Amino acid sequence: MNDQIEDENTTSFRFEKSQLPELDRVVHLVEKAKKFAAIDILETIQFRKSNFPIFSLRFGPDDPRLPCLALFGGVHGLERIGSQTIVSFLESFVARLEWDEDLLESLKTVRLLSIPIVNPAGMYMGRRSNHHGVDLMRNAPIEAEGPTPFLIGGHRITSRIPYYRGKKNEPMELESQAVINFCEKEILPASCSIALDVHSGFGMRDRLWYPYAKSTRQFERIAEVQSLTSLLKRSYPNHIYVVEPQSQHYLTHGDLWDYIYEKHQKNPDWNKNLFLPLTLEMGSWLWLKKNPMQILSGSLAVFHPIAGHRQKRIFRRHIALFEFLWRASKYYSAGKLI
Ligand SMILES: [Zn+2]
Q: Could you give the CA distance from residue 130 to residue 40 in angstroms, rounded to a whole number?
């Protein structure tokens, strides 16, 4: 992607067509969304003489104290379906804002935020890591409080092996820092914020993970997680999600959300607020079970459904969850979710 032309007056984002269809789709989305949303380029990743912008969108007022849902996708470049699912949801959201006055009215009191592709250069390369070989979800200066699975839990051996954390005491990667800065500015000051980071590739079920990744100790905001889970069950009795702590499966070093949560806890003002970092881990083994030949089409296949009808089904599958979390973030008061 070359020759970004940014017109300050019209906030127009025009690019030459990139070799990354997901990024082209985000550019198309922000062009349509700018009527309703604040659009930013948080960082531009330079790789092989090309520029890969990291876009953010914010629907709703410029007041970070207001409740919000924030959707993050494409932290791992291989997991394209997460970004596609978020973009598909936001495209519908923008289309509805054109005519649905009630939806527009809702945005006065609850914001919707997103970084649809956190790691565009990694996605362009078809890699889990970024272009430096660093796994952004192992990149934060956080040490696990127990044994981690060999390599998978994060390592500092070499960037040529997946799950590489980066060098010790080096600054975090630009993509990681962009997410942290965005959260500090837009999300952590909110009375109630839910961050949903969308991944794929683990297991047969769709899982909603809450902290910690670094430790098996109980998450301080477990009461809020339980009331949110109960609210989800009451609102959607047939929902498909397994809600559990990430540490139930394995511990990792360097989890970005553990790090941002720690930052949230350290600030006395933010501590009055609720910040729930959740991960949606889409169970891609189910796609392989239905289409085992997919595994022969390369490593991407393990993380991404190839069949078009299956992709569409996944886009539809999570719309209710995104809506629910967005609405629920508004109904947190007096220390509990209703
Ligand atoms: Zn992932």
A: 21
CA of 268 to the centre of ligand 1 (A): 31
Q: The tokens of 272 are what?
A: 């009055």
Predicted TM-score of the model (pTM): 0.91
The H-or-E segment that residue 263 falls in is: helix 256-266
Q: Which domains, ranges and CATH numbers included, belong to the chain?
A: 5-125+172-202+255-332 (3.40.630.10)
Checking phi first, is residue 220 left (phi over 0); if not, alpha (psi -120 to 50) or beta? alpha
Residue 104 alpha carbon to ligand 1 centre in Å = 32
Helix H or strand E segment including 46: strand 37-47
Alpha carbon distance 57, 112 (integer Å)? 8
What are the structure tokens assigned to 299, written together?
A: 């490593």
Task: Yes or no: say if 174 and 43 are a contact pair by the CB < 8 Å rule.
Answer: yes
Q: Do residues 187 and 276 make contact, with C-beta atoms less than 8 angstroms apart?
A: no
Share of the chain above pLDDT 70, in %: 85
Q: Which residue has the tokens 């981690």?
A: 148
Ligand 1 centroid to Cα of residue 106, in Å, is 31
Using the mean position of ligand 1's atoms as its centre, give its distance from the Cα of residue 338 in Å.
Answer: 31
Q: How far apart are CA 209 and CA 113, in angstroms?
A: 20
Ligand 1 centre to CA of 244 (Å) is 17
Quick: pLDDT tens for 74-85. 999 999 999 999
Distance from the alpha carbon of residue 250 to the mean position of ligand 1, in angstroms: 14
CA of 253 to the centre of ligand 1 (A): 14
Q: 152 alpha carbon to ligand 1 midpoint, in Å?
A: 12
